[in-house]
Design brief:
alpha/beta; eight-stranded mixed sheet; two-stranded antiparallel sheet; 9 helices
Length: 286
């Protein structure tokens, strides 16, 4: 009789465009049956084990999915480290192209026999969904636009554009100093953003243009956004739906940017709003 307890499999990934390894894990019920695959992408200042994300992964696994989440390589988490943000130099050298290529490296590994420890018999890669939270939501929109292997796309409180529209004065100071800093209220860290982030965006505008590329999406798209999101206004979800009218939009009443989560999350169940988001997503992916 198959176990009802998901197993967790950890593995490392490498992006051929840089030398920094990054971690992923997969949760699933090992029953020998091919299951739809969900890849979850964290947001800015996020990481794969933030808050309730492990509870979320187990929940999806119990519903018959292989749920994979990864640390983007330059998110500040160190392989073998504390599991939290600690490498601020790596964080400062992150950019949107790196993140897209990291996600591509995971998709390549899933489609390459022996590249991950996951048994091929457990994976139905013809049903491959990307879910992204916040900045990760924008990332999965972009990846789906350029990768036909993705069959479903889901944005949770997703950004609607990568262009920050920084003021000319800020850009001039940033270029002159080479760095600007943002605060992490949770950890008290001053987190650097090196000017290469802006340079990468300027070089790769066509690849990073969410408003244009979301119009080209062929995959079914689900958007979930809280109407009390204090970080990214719910109007962003309405904008994305306007650009891609086939998208399904669910506005979650009373939900904040993290759908009731916090870090660390010490409860056995999901926050109520996150539970709703999970159930809406699972129904969409069935």
């Amino acid at each position: 009789m198959a176990s009802s307890t998901p197993i967790s499999t950890d593995f490392l990934l490498r992006n051929p465009n840089h030398t920094r390894p990054f971690a992923a894990d997969a949760r699933y019920l090992p029953d020998g049956q091919a299951k739809p695959v969900v890849v979850f992408v964290h947001g800015f200042k996020g990481f794969k084990d933030w808050g309730h994300f492990n509870v979320l992964a187990d929940y999806f696994a119990r519903q018959g999915f292989v749920f994979i989440k990864l640390n983007l390589s330059h998110n500040g988490v160190v392989v073998g480290g504390s599991g939290d943000l600690e490498d601020m130099e790596a964080f400062g050298h992150n950019n949107f192209s790196l993140e897209l290529d990291d996600l591509g490296a995971l998709l390549d590994a899933l489609h390459t026999p022996g590249a991950t420890p996951l048994p091929p018999a457990e994976l139905d890669l013809t049903r491959l969904a990307l879910i992204g939270h916040s900045r990760g939501g924008g990332l999965v929109l972009l990846k789906a636009a350029e990768d036909a292997r993705v069959t479903f796309v889901v944005g949770w409180a997703a950004i609607n554009d990568i262009d920050q529209r920084w003021s000319p004065d800020l850009m001039q100071r940033w270029q002159a100093d080479g760095v600007q800093y943002i605060d992490n209220a949770r950890t008290g860290q001053r987190m650097p953003l090196y000017y290469q982030l802006a340079e990468d965006y300027q070089r790769n505008k066509a690849r990073l243009d969410i408003p244009t590329l979301v119009c080209t999406l062929r995959q079914p798209l689900l958007l979930l956004h809280g109407d009390q999101d204090e970080t990214l206004t719910v109007q962003m979800a309405h904008d994305i739906q306007a650009w891609q009218p086939r998208a399904k939009l669910v506005v979650v009443p009373g939900a904040n940017h993290v759908f009731g989560g916090r870090h660390p999350w010490e409860e056995s169940g999901l926050p109520a709003d996150a539970q709703r988001v999970a159930d809406e997503t699972i129904a969409f992916l069935r």
